[in-house]
Amino acid sequence: MSAGGGTKAILAALGANAGIAVAKFVAFLFTGSSSMLAESVHSLADTSNQGLLLLGQRTSRRKATREHPFGFGRDRYFYAFVVALLLFTLGSVFAIYEGIHKIEHPEPLSSPLVAVLVLVVAIALEGYSFRTAIGESRALKGNATWWQFIRQAKAPELPVVLLEDAGALFGLVFALIGVGLSVLTGDPVWDGVGTLGIGVLLGVIAIILIVEMKSLLIGEGAAPDVLDTIVAQLAAGRVERVIHIRTQYLGPDELLIAAKIALTPGLTLAEVAQAIDDAELRVRSKVPSAKLIYLEPDLDRSSISR
Fold it and tell me: Which among 3, 12, 45 is positioned nearest to 133, based on CA atoms?
């Protein structure tokens, strides 16, 4: 994914969540529904999150400095990690607290029809945002499952938006069920149950994102198929084999490769330099994200000992 990858999905989610947050809060003022209040905070958190993702994309494009010689590509991982923390604190913890409070001290709803109308409109808007994120993700997902895509993606924005939108849709359904059961049964405790369900759902999604973003922030290496491609491209021409190799993503679009390679014995200094240049060109032709490649030439001592 390019540096601006996922921007369309982020902007769609930003616009949808900002409008939905206002509508939900107005509905809460009319109805007093804790589900609507929880959903209002959830949408407000999501709106802030999309802003942070856009900020991460912008700051990650800064040029490398002496203090940060490998650039700022991991800014995108950092801000995605902050998004996960906000989703947990502003979304999950608040909704769980509010749900428990309403279950212990239920209050009757006023004007529930307003809440139902707002929730139905919100489901339609979130569905549009979710469909946009799915459309942008398909080209990158390939043959992988959606779960594999979320686990393996090196660019954080689309997995974050996908999970946020999925959580928002299910949360809206929980809120609709809570409000609906409160009206049908006359027991407002169901509104609190719906709020509690929203909190648990957001907590699960936030924890998944925290785990995945932490892994990216610490530093992940190339996927097995990408690593196999790199080794195959290195071990050609005058490179007899790859003795050992290390890879790490410095950002979604920047892969660092460091390897010790065994060269054909008897090469001149100029031939060694050319062999290294050729190996780098082969790798970059197959793995465009391999922006930084450091190769240490050596002899294949295993063949010499024989």
Answer: 12
